[in-house]
Design a protein that fits this description.
It is an enzyme of class 2 (transferase). This protein is of the alpha+beta class. The chain is built from twelve helices and 18 strands. It binds adenosine-5'-diphosphate (ADP) and the ligand O=P(O)(O)O[C@H]1O[C@H](CO)[C@@H](O[C@H]2O[C@H](CO)[C@@H](O)[C@H](O)[C@H]2O)[C@H](O)[C@H]1O.
């Protein structure tokens, strides 16, 4: 039976959020034929009284599954059609035509043309979503776990594209349906940056060079990244400026700042309860939060990226491009769309430089000797990023230092929980943030 096959298969997928918890029930809420042999399913999974919805492209094959699709098999004659380039072209065609297929709406951005001829491949790094790369032209991200509402990434990238903003990948189209009466994004298609490297890989290459070199300082070594960090800072300020122009902005007054601090304290308490290793460092965050509350003043707020780190930016031959404006995965949509200080993103990227510097030390024989270099690399790039941010018009005043420090520690608290859940051997990286 289909529901049984899906239960067995879904629980083993990278994007299935409810791993490790028993499934109380699974139901197919919507089943739409997109083309012969291709069905679009929305499936509800009940676990511990909660319900999560996922989307699946179901391939149906009457004969034996060809070898090229065997890894995507769900059951006899059924498979994950995201992996079948013979079928996925229909997604681009339908977006290009602006079709409605049953309750699914395929749309494209006004004035853009979508070429539906390139064939797709699933991007290797499948995580919480599944991305299909069409030729060297488009990337279509299928949001696997569905949260009712317009996805913030689609909302922000479309708004910035309308303003012809720099530093984003051109959006082309999207798929939506109604869930709980709300238009809900199922997928979005953007320009694929075929000739670009992600910031994390570039930063790590620089750190590796530094560790391998006999040079004395980060700025003398072959892998100096600080000019890139500066440009990234400038690009970040420009993206913030565009987001402030495209969406409402506001001011958080002192009372709201104190409420934000209360929320940070709550998250810190929850994190300590979940990850006992954090307990001995908690006083560092508490002190930083206390200082923010003590000097609380008006803070400008706006839409922000929300989960900003080196893995979310790509360097093309000419530019830094910002991706994935979805906010922190797992947070409620309202929180991810809420206005907040752009310094949250600045803090996120500062943390990321620290991550890049330290993560290669974990298994390194000479970790102790290299630590001062790691710290120096991180400091150099963090300050270059901040200088670039200011040069690009980003607001960074003396009075913001206390807030920035507390936002960095709040991000480190989030990272402690993230690493404990997903990559326990990386836990020492965010824990080190409380020592300086
Ligand atoms: N427009 C794009 N062009 C090229 N590669 C991309 C593009 N968008 C995403 N990627 C690649 O996919 C990876 C994950 O993308 P992301 O949007 O951050 O997905 P996720 O939400 O699953 O983290 C990026 O680090 C990058 O390597
Ligand atoms: O990119 P995602 O939206 O999936 O973000 C989540 O995963 C990130 C890890 O890939 C995580 O980022 C943390 O690790 C990065 C190195 O892998 C590092 O550059 C970041 O600074 C650090 O926060 C992110 O926090 C999480 O939300």
């Amino acid at each position: 039976m289909l529901t049984e096959l899906l239960t067995g298969w879904m629980t083993h997928q990278r994007w299935f959020a409810g791993k490790g918890r028993p499934i109380d029930g699974l139901a197919v809420d919507s089943d739409v034929e997109l083309a012969p042999g291709l069905r679009h399913l929305i499936v509800s999974v009940r676990q511990n009284g909660a319900r999560d919805r996922y989307q699946i492209l179901l391939g149906c094959c009457e004969s034996d599954l060809p070898d090229r699709l065997r890894h995507a098999q769900i059951g006899d004659g059924l498979y994950d059609a995201a992996h079948d380039a013979d079928l996925t072209g229909v997604l681009l065609e339908a977006m290009s035509d602006g079709r409605d297929i049953g309750p699914l709406r395929f749309r494209h951005l006004e004035g853009v043309h979508i070429d539906s001829s390139p064939r797709s491949l699933v991007l290797g790094a499948e995580q919480s979503n599944t991305s299909l790369v069409y030729g060297e032209t488009y990337i279509c991200k299928l949001f696997r776990r569905l949260i009712p509402g317009v996805n913030p990434e689609l909302e922000i990238v479309n708004a910035l594209a309308l303003r012809k903003a720099a530093h984003i990948a051109q959006p082309y189209g999207w798929i939506e349906t109604d869930l709980d009466g709300e238009p809900t994004t199922l997928a979005m298609t953007q320009e694929f940056l075929s000739n670009a490297n992600d910031g994390w890989a570039l930063a790590l290459a620089s750190v590796r060079d530094l560790y391998a070199s006999m040079e004395e300082s980060a700025s003398d070594a072959g892998g100096d990244f600080s000019a890139e960090s500066f440009r990234l800072g400038t690009a970040t300020a420009e993206v913030h400026h565009e987001m402030a122009a495209a969406f409402p902005t506001g001011v958080m007054d002192a009372a709201e700042v104190r409420r934000m601090v209360d929320d940070q304290r709550r998250k810190l308490e929850q994190a300590v309860a979940e990850v006992p290793e954090l307990a001995e460092h908690a006083h560092v965050a508490e002190e930083a939060y206390r200082r923010v509350a003590a000097v609380a003043h008006d803070v400008p707020v706006q839409r922000v990226h929300g989960d900003y780190h080196l893995g979310q930016v790509m360097r093309t031959p000419t530019d830094w491009i910002v991706l994935d404006f979805e906010g922190e995965p797992g947070q409620p949509l309202a929180e991810r769309r809420a206005l907040s200080s752009p310094l949250r993103d600045v803090a996120g990227m500062l943390r990321s430089f620290d991550y890049a510097a330290r993560h290669l030390l974990a298994d390194h024989d000479a970790a102790e000797d290299l630590l001062p270099r790691a710290v120096e690399w991180a400091e150099l790039n963090r300050s270059s990023f901040l200088a670039g941010y200011s040069a690009g018009g980003g607001r960074l005043r003396g009075e913001d230092a206390v807030l920035l420090r507390s936002l960095e520690l709040a991000k480190a608290v989030y990272e402690v929980v993230y690493e404990a859940r997903n990559r326990p051997s990386w836990l020492p990286i965010p824990l080190a943030a409380f020592g300086h």
